Amino acid sequence: MDERVGRACEQYERAIFQGDVTGLAGVDRELNAAEAELALARGKLLHAHFLDGREQEDPRELELFRRSLELYEALGDERGRAEALFWIGCFHQVVRDDAESALAALESSAALARQSGDQLILSYALRHLGIAAHREGRADEAAQLLGESTELRRTLGFTAGVAANLVGLVHLAIDQGRSADAEALLAEATTLAEAAGATAILNQLTAARGRL
């Protein structure tokens, strides 16, 4: 049992049998935080199923991310809000191909992640803002955003995430006719992906190499 659920059960017994209700508000907040985390986790699993390509959009995914955001807002948790907003933006960008809705959520996520100091979520928001800029033909902005995300991931030791970002930078280099840069990025990304056991990223790099 999750510790927070256990504490809620203990508080219930104290309230019922001892008349001690002083801890009810505290365990309510803990359960809201636990529910927010669970909603995010369930939504992310549905997103993984969608990316696997064997399932269509599941409307519960967006509902779960929105529920998580609602709970984090009630808790006043900026870091949690940043994460929930990122996943809402990711859903709109990846699943719905709704650039406008995605951009609003991703920009809000990035701003909140900076305020709360969550470098990992910031790296994700910047990555997907970079993807949005690339799709809209703003190559320089895309490179800047992906570059900032990549440096954050290097600092965090998020090797697979660095490799994933380098895939995007490879495509940018190819689009701009910078073949030598693309080759160098491919080599680095391949080394990192192999070290991280990131087979999916290696497949993306093979596809990118085919464009050279």
Describe the secondary-structure layout.
Elements: H1 3-18, H2 24-51, H3 60-75, H4 78-95, H5 99-116, H6 119-135, H7 139-156, H8 159-175, H9 179-196, H10 199-209
Helix pairs in contact: 1-2, 2-3, 2-4, 3-4, 4-5, 4-6, 5-6, 6-7, 7-8, 8-9, 8-10, 9-10
Structure description:
The termini are far apart. The protein is mostly helical. The model has no long low-confidence stretch (mean pLDDT about 95). α1 runs antiparallel to α2 (about 25-50). The chain has 2 domains: about 5-155, Serine Threonine Protein Phosphatase 5, Tetratricopeptide repeat (Alpha Horseshoe); about 160-210. The protein has 10 helices and no strands. It is elongated and about 75 Å long.
Summarize the structure.
With 212 residues, the protein is mainly α. The chain is built from ten helices and no strands.
